[in-house]
Amino acid sequence: MSFNYPKTVSNFLFGASEDIGELDSDSIIAVHSHKNVLDLIVQNNNNLITYKENILEDNSIDCLVLDLEELEINLESLRKDFRRISKNYFSDIIIFEDRIDSVNNSDLLEFFEQNHFKNSLVNDNLLSEDFLFNLYLGCYFKKQIFEYNCTFNFNELSDLLKLKENDLRNKLFKNIFNDSETHTIEILFKTNIYIGQLGYNDKEFNSKDITDFIETVKTYCTVVENYNNYSQKEFLYEIQKSLTHYYHCGFLLPESSNTSKLIDGAHEIKMNTHLRLFWNCNSNLYKKLDGNDIYYTNFDPYDSKAEKSEIIICHLSNDLAEIYEDLKSNLEGFFKNDVFSKQEALWQLKFDWKGHTGDHLTFAFRAIHWKLQEIRYD
């Protein structure tokens, strides 16, 4: 369709793109016929890219804008190519679905029906839930609906319907526009806009970088759960070794997208489960480590303020239990039999590796390194 969107639609899309971050003029790939909308986003029409006309470089785009009319591309090929050209796994796919919501002119509606336009334009949502699920695959996507009236003269409506046959154009001109160049028709349109990020499919979940990382998580959890099978020295050595592998593989774990919000009550259940994991583990490891549990450090080695640079007392059992809680709870989510839990767990594992888990790991790592040297010398 070639009509202009109202500002509400253009502003919504522009705002959605801004949410992605600072966008370069060539960082959006557009498969779309609405140039007025794309000009707002890209801001430089000379750099506008179209999906079918260009071979795009790897890691070259931040956002993909698709017109529904162009979605004849194979879904799996689209996902694969989008992975290749996206700068990261947080890249967004924005999809437009334009439909004529209602036509007040009965003659025009009859014209649509007789010439097979109704099925493709009127009240027909081509994007099924299955299509959206398989496209975004485990990731949360949002939908915005816009309704607005557009007024067309004969030439504009002919262009909209892509009428090339003279008899159809003549029929439209004579029966609908009453042989008048000045006559106009008002049509109510509905535009659905879907915005989301791609999740992993089964093949991507089984990639080496992901499976290697998950194995290191399982290994650490196994060592902690079998603490009674080791001497104190063996336990510290196995912990140090498993944390080293985990930290290394975390660098190779690809970024992923977050999934949908937790359902009501799920967060509370999840938190209670985490707390039980932590306290049980913390109590067992405190007894296991005994006199080697306490170590001394400062909270922030780069902060010169007195309250953050002063020496504090830490418990190694606390660090290891915090790490165990993070890894075990997400490991259980990863092996649930649904793509949403798997996706959420993978995103959370990477997020924790860069944050909470990584903080406790670096504290524990230094303490264990020193203690193992001491034990070896003894």
Write up this protein:
- This protein has 378 residues and is of the alpha/beta class.
- Helices cover 53% and strands 15% of the residues.
- The chain contains 16 helices and eight strands.
- A six-stranded mixed β-sheet has the order 2-1-3-4-6-5. A two-stranded antiparallel sheet has the order 7-8.
- β1, α2 and β2 form a beta-alpha-beta unit.
- α1 packs parallel to α2 and α10 (208-225) crosses α14 (316-334).
- The longest helix is centred in the C-terminal third of the chain and has 24 residues, at 266-289.
- Residues 19-27, 31-51 and 261-269 have low confidence and may be disordered.
Largest sheet: 6 strands, mixed
> Could you give the distance between the termini?
80 Å
| Percent of residues in β-strands | 15-25%
Average pLDDT works out at: 76
What is the 3D shape?
elongated
Main sheet: which strands, in order across? Answer: 2-1-3-4-6-5
The total count of strands amounts to 8
Which runs of at least 5 residues are low in confidence (pLDDT < 50)?
Answer: 19-27, 31-51, 261-269
How big is the Rg? 29 Å
Structural class: alpha/beta
The string of secondary-structure elements, in order, is HEHEEHEHHHEHHEHHHHEHEHHH
Helix content: 40-55%
* Number of helices in the DSSP assignment: 16
Short description:
The chain is of the alpha/beta class. It is built from 16 helices and eight strands.
What's the helix and strand layout?
Blueprint lengths: L6 H14 L7 E4 L3 H8 L6 E2 L12 E5 L7 H11 L6 E12 L2 H9 L3 H4 L7 H8 L4 E12 L1 H8 L4 H11 L8 E13 L4 H4 L2 H18 L6 H21 L13 H24 L4 E5 L7 H4 L1 E5 H19 L4 H16 L1 H22 L1
Parallel strand pairs: 1-2, 1-3, 3-4
Antiparallel strand pairs: 4-6, 5-6, 7-8
Helix pairs in contact: 1-2, 10-11, 10-14, 11-16, 12-14, 14-15, 14-16, 15-16
